[in-house]
Design brief:
21 strands, seven-stranded parallel beta sheet, binds adenosine-5'-diphosphate, Rossmann fold, alpha/beta, binds magnesium ion, OB fold (Dihydrolipoamide Acetyltransferase, E2P)
Length: 696
């Protein structure tokens, strides 16, 4: 249960003074609906009102607070577009206050002729004449302290002005309790970080532009808090999985030795490493929870199969689940091929299997005749009962949710944790791996099998389309199969589709009926159909939206054309490019750009320089930011409120070590620091693991 000390922070913003339904709805869009959300809404700039020069000294546009005497009013003539003007002066010069469509009584009471007034706002120098339109503050001199000397500037939303936003967030900071310290005192001292409440106050009451930077001490501390909460939550879950008794499965090597001997190639060093790490996990007493991270084409399938064979050597079953029908079929084909002569029974089950055929598959599964079941989500349906499932592989793991992972685990023997090997081809920078997969052990396939011909990658302007078409014609005459990718247009799926359809029709006119179209709005069956025609070679050019990103293997495809490549993240381009260069033949990738700035150009050039997904992911992180690395859509990257992964990633390993050490010393979080860390978990709503701890 949420600690009482946090209650004020979880109250609705509407409970703050001056926040009604309308404003609450506005700030909900940009920050959230609770007071807490406002605290995480950080200023991006400041307005410094401390300057108060004599009028004669103002020579450029600037923000100032002036004490002036109100002179004459120049009301706008009726029905004219001219503004209402009020002339003011000090001993050195004059300034003209400008109002468009003012309420007259308001102006007259605010600026009575002959009186002194403080005005604060932006002065503009207009051919020698000073003017200020709509001052932010107009007050009598004795109310000077009502004008903040420095005001934070927040990201805004329609219907809430900057002034109102700053005022409301200031109210929110007043509700922040003085929370007990959960950080290690030595760390705080070393980093010179303020305590939590001071950090909140400092972050929202910046005194200089520096205070609004993500590397200011207050912001660093708050970011570290959040990353620590994230790591702590993952570590609690990891320890929980480890606690579960698994099945100790020592490999007998009866199958695996034969399997390796049959392979037409040697395993790479990275594959051997991964296999040995997996072997240790499986032989160990607790359940395996390992991620196999490897670029497209790095050879994950062999590693997965090796692991499944260990289960079979222990008279158990294994399963491999893939996100799409096509992928499942490809796995089925390649696993069947690789296990020739081993006497291993492999079956496939997808949504397409119905009636008698499905019944037969289920019978063989429950009797134990089937050793490996390959399939889609169909594998975790209720009536799919295994004889003795002990090992499961999840391919393209980010395409599956936690529930699906759990459902698969639940298919094993009762009370025993299943060995799980999750696989992903999405390269994530090392630092971010911890925030996404911190609850798993990670094996990386950092090298590719030898003998690959590099993909010839070229960057070209889209207005050279004629040349591209000519080259395409030549390639087809030489038997090439071509992917032609059209990107998201302005984030709209409808326009996106329209662009792809248009290109499809255009290419169809030129190349006739050997052109296909595949996109996200098509039914699974239609997609499979087109894809199968491409695989079979009945289509030469496959026009696609980004749906082809995931794992499909068409070794004969040797050309990848990507329109408006500048709109993609590098990692996304890398994934797309990975669709070609899979067979022996030389492959080409054409990155066509619309318009290019200098950074965009250097981004695309990285694609020409390397095919290493991890390097590309790191560059992407540097150039575009974490959200863009993979497209948040498919990354599984957790959402952070204060921490910004581009700026704060150095804190992640620190937080990880911190979390591990703390739980090592105080596994139930019951000591003084432990109890305070529980508050931290609730503060960042990462408390799902707390229920596994003994109540503190
Ligand atoms: P991915 O990691 O993308 O799933 P795959 O497992 O599909 O990669 O492997 C890609 C290709 O590389 C396959 O054709 C596979 O047979 C081949 N391969 C895998 N390991 C090796 C190796 N050690 N040496 C040579 N080729 C390999
Ligand atoms: Mg694969």
């Amino acid at each position: 249960m949420r600690p009482e000390i946090l209650f004020p922070l979880f109250a609705e913003t509407e409970t703050l003074p001056g926040v009604g339904k309308r404003i609450a709805a506005g700030i909900e869009k940009v920050a959230g609906s609770r007071i807490l959300d406002l605290l995480w809404h950080m200023p991006v700039d400041i307005i410094d009102r401390r300057a108060g020069p004599d009028l004669i000294d103002i020579t450029f546009d600037q923000i100032v607070t002036l004490e002036v005497t109100v002179g004459g009013h120049d009301p706008a003539p009726a029905k004219s577009k001219k503004p209402y003007r009020v002339w003011c002066h000090d001993d050195t010069g004059t300034i003209c206050l400008v109002f468009f469509h003012p309420r007259k009584d308001y102006i007259l009471t605010q600026l009575p002729e002959g009186e002194k007034r403080l005005i604060s706002g932006k002065v503009e120098v207009y051919s020698g004449q000073l003017q200020m339109s709509h001052p932010d503050y107009i007050l009598p001199p004795e109310k000077r302290n009502e004008i903040p000397s420095v005001e934070p500037v927040y990201p805004l939303t329609a219907g809430v002005s900057g002034k109102v936003m700053a005022r409301i967030i200031n109210e929110a900071t007043k509700k922040a309790p003085n929370l007990p310290e959960w950080l290690d005192p030595a760390l705080i001292k070393r980093e010179r970080w303020p305590d939590w409440i001071s950090s909140i106050n400092k972050a929202h009451h910046p005194e200089s532009k520096d205070d609004t930077y993500s590397n200011s001490p207050a912001r660093l501390r708050l970011a570290y808090d959040e990353l620590l909460a994230n790591q702590l939550a993952l570590e609690i879950m990891r320890r929980q999985t480890k606690k579960k008794k698994g099945r100790a499965m020592e490999g007998t090597h009866i199958l695996t030795d034969k399997f390796l001997a049959n392979l037409p190639y040697q395993l790479t060093g990275a594959q051997k490493n991964a296999i040995s790490e997996i072997g240790k996990d499986m032989a160990g007493p607790s359940a395996m929870m390992r991620l196999l991270q490897g670029d497209v084409g790095s050879g994950k399938t062999v590693v997965a199969l090796y692991s499944m064979l260990i289960a079979i050597e222990n008279n158990a079953q294994a399963a491999i689940i893939a996100p799409t029908e096509i992928l499942a079929r490809q796995h089925f084909a390649s696993l069947t091929d690789m296990t020739k002569g081993l006497g291993v029974n492999i079956a496939i089950l997808t949504g397409r299997d119905k009636g008698k055929a499905r019944q037969k598959i289920l019978e063989d599964l429950v009797s134990g005749k089937t050793d490996i079941l390959v399939g889609t989500h169909a594998l975790i349906q209720k009536d799919v009962i295994y004889h003795d499932l002990a090992m499961a592989v999840i391919d393209e793991q980010h395409r599956f949710g936690v529930e699906q992972r759990m459902a698969l685990s639940a298919k094993g023997a009762k009370g025993i944790g299943m060995d799980i090997l999750a696989m992903t081809a999405t390269p994530i920078p090392r630092t971010l791996t911890l925030t996404v997969y911190g609850d798993m052990d990670v094996s990386r396939l950092y090298e590719k099998p030898p003998g690959r011909t590099p993909i010839d990658t070229r960057v070209m302007a889209l207005n050279r389309l004629e040349e591209v078409i000519t080259a395409t014609r030549r390639a087809i005459e030489n038997g090439a199969r071509i992917y032609w990718v059209c990107p998201l247009v302005e984030e709209s799926e409808v326009l996106d589709l329209a662009a792809a359809e248009e290109r499809f029709r255009h290419l169809e006119q030129i190349f006739g009926h050997r052109v296909g179209l595949i996109h996200g709005k098509m039914k699974v069956k239609e997609k499979d159909e087109v894809m199968n025609r491409f695989i079979a070679g009945n289509i030469d050019i496959l026009v696609a939206t980004t749906v082809i990103e995931v794992g499909v293997d068409v070794p004969e495809a040797t050309v990848m054309i990507i329109e408006h490549a500048e709109r993609f993240g590098l990692s996304q381009l890398h994934q797309l490019r990975g669709r070609v260069g899979r067979g022996g033949a030389k492959s080409t990738c054409l990155l066509l750009y619309g318009t290019l700035g200098a950074t965009a150009k250097s981004r695309l050039n990285i694609m020409r320089q390397t095919e290493d997904g991890f390097i590309i992911a790191e560059e992407d992180l540097k150039l575009r930011g974490a959200g863009e690395v993979l497209g948040t859509r498919q990354s599984g990257l957790p959402k952070f409120r204060v921490a910004c992964l581009e700026d704060h990633h150095k804190l992640i390993p620190m937080a990880r070590d911190d979390a591990r050490l703390v739980l090592e010393k105080d596994p139930e979080l019951s000591g003084v620091r432990g109890k305070n860390l529980r508050i931290l978990l609730y503060l960042f709503e990462r408390d799902e693991g707390v229920k596994y701890l003994k109540s503190g």
